[in-house]
């Protein structure tokens, strides 16, 4: 290797370190991002519940159990995610696990309390699918950029992206569509189709917007 290239390479760590320090988020920035991301997703959950739609991952399983048992979605969602924290702690670290726990807890609370503050008399399922998919994608992106998630399959998809470079959106799309299709025995086909559309919109949004290494300083 020539001397100029060696010198340039020697300068890269310092430049990278400086760039990372600029991008690193503070505690207040993390707090507002976790709150906003959880709020966006909770609004999506309310839209989906109003339109009779589903979502994927553990939230989709929680929705199915909510429809079948009538138990609060938030409580079911919180409990289902408990086993995933061990995996997150081992594979993703303490910071990611704690932030994810806080995000899941906030979403569970907001999803159950939210209907007391907002109610929509009429909601077209197509609108709910498009708006909900984008809102959920935005919320998940907020959380991912601040080293958090909403548990379940999101933990697995972010781990595969960080470890093997597989786009989180691809993994999330596969898991979400699988969970939604399993709902055919409970939810009408038309609503399942709209739910799949929402999952595809959300995953495409993440696929395009969340790229490995773009926010290494976060």
TrEMBL record:
Keyword presence, Zinc-finger: no
Membrane-topology descriptor: Multi-pass membrane protein
UniProt keywords, alphabetically: Cell membrane, Membrane, Transmembrane, Transmembrane helix
Residue spans crossing the bilayer: 33-53, 65-88, 100-120, 126-144, 164-186, 192-209
InterPro entries membership: UPF0750_membrane, YitT
Keyword Ribonucleoprotein carried by entry: no
Subcellular location(s) per record: Cell membrane
Chief location category: membrane
Domain of life: Bacteria
Protein's name in the database: YitT family protein
Native source organism of the sequence: Comamonas guangdongensis
